[in-house]
Amino acid sequence: MNILIIGSGAREHVFFHKLLESKTNVSLFSINPNAAISSISKALHFDFNFQNLKQAIIDNSINLVLVGPEIPLIEGVYDFIKSNNEICNTIVIGPSKNGAMLEGSKDFAKEFMSKYNIPTAQSKSFTKESLSEGINYLKNKKGPYVLKADGPAAGKGVVIVDKLDDAKIVLEDMLVNNSFGKSSETVVIEEFLSGIEMSCFVLFDGKNYLTLPYAKDYKRIGEGDVGLNTGGMGSISPVSFMDEEMYNKIDERIIKPTVAGLINEGIEYKGFIFIGLINVNGNPYVIEYNVRMGDPETQVVLPRIKNDFLQILLAIENQNLDQVELEIDPKHYTNVVLASKGYPESYNKGFIITGLEKINRSIIFHAGTLLKDNTVLTNGGRVISMVSSADNFRKALKKSYESIDLIDFEGKTCRKDIGFDL
Ligand code: AMP
Ligand code: GLY
After folding, report:
1. Percentage of residues in the chain having pLDDT higher than 90
2. Among residues 105, 130, 294, 330, which is most buried (max CB within 10 A)?
3. Nearest-angstrom CA–CA distance, 304 and 315
């Protein structure tokens, strides 16, 4: 079976890694891959757009496309493939464009949650035309103020400020000065929720769903979870504060109505639903939907799944997820991300990474790396995910940090406090 994975970060490295373990004979194809992915797949090199993708599917007789990142989904890669006679038989794991609206438009997601009574922060959406109403809305609320660009903004579209004056400035900046481009033509103003966040991943085949192990990510660059937002500096799974009661509340109040809503709306959806949750005094609320797996959570979630990953993907396609029983490794998994100095702001690339061959107690998933003349170089803000497992998360973390000590590159940085809050 010929499988093409879109995306070339650590999340996708996990997908490749899991598919290589499959009992089925698979040929894996990647697009402009990082160092690790290039060594375990056939690397295709092209500018990513749908026409080039179509040609790659035809040229390499691709049977299945697994979509890693959100942008191709939001732009309708599923619909493109399914509506094209020459490639419509290719299996696509990922939702249709309508389904991807759950991530592509916060306003859409809010309407959806309101219609299906899914607990989330109270909110109201505004455009340039309703700026003054927006300002009045802010005046009637207490801080902190949460302002969200409606469209995709690479995880940077949420601004939280304490003071009303700052909130007004941010709102005007988003709506009038388009501080997030087209993505902030609509802004969602939301009630601030206080609690611990966690990540919920659901496999959905359009009829049945399966919940993957819960995870928690650490988004900020600074220790103690302060400073700028990043793509994610670490993650852990399982989540210690998830008990059966919370699990059932999430299932009943959030997951069931979400999948029922998608079915009721007639939305084609065969893929992952990633629900960002916050636990407010024992009650779960949705912070956001994503329509893909999370990064860096995938690095601790999928290695815990013992099933043949390809069989899971085929069950999504064949709508028989109800016949899959997940086999979950009870061990604790931790992921500490190694980043380039300066990330998430500007950083340099092209530094030699040494010590990779010394790692034998952790798994390395590559993010921004490049193989050049048999040497592995840094090639991005987030460089490597160091994943370890043990019978408790402290031991697992210790392993990850010991492994990190064996790796070196100029400007190597990581957070020393992953899991600090548990
Ligand atoms: P999002 O892109 O919607 O996940 O938001 C990014 C981050 O902003 C979340 O992970 C939260 O830490 C924070 N956030 C978003 N919405 C809220 C809210 N209503 N209350 C408190 N924090 C929030
Ligand atoms: N870890 C958060 C995300 O993937 O968006």
Report:
1. 95
2. 294
3. 19
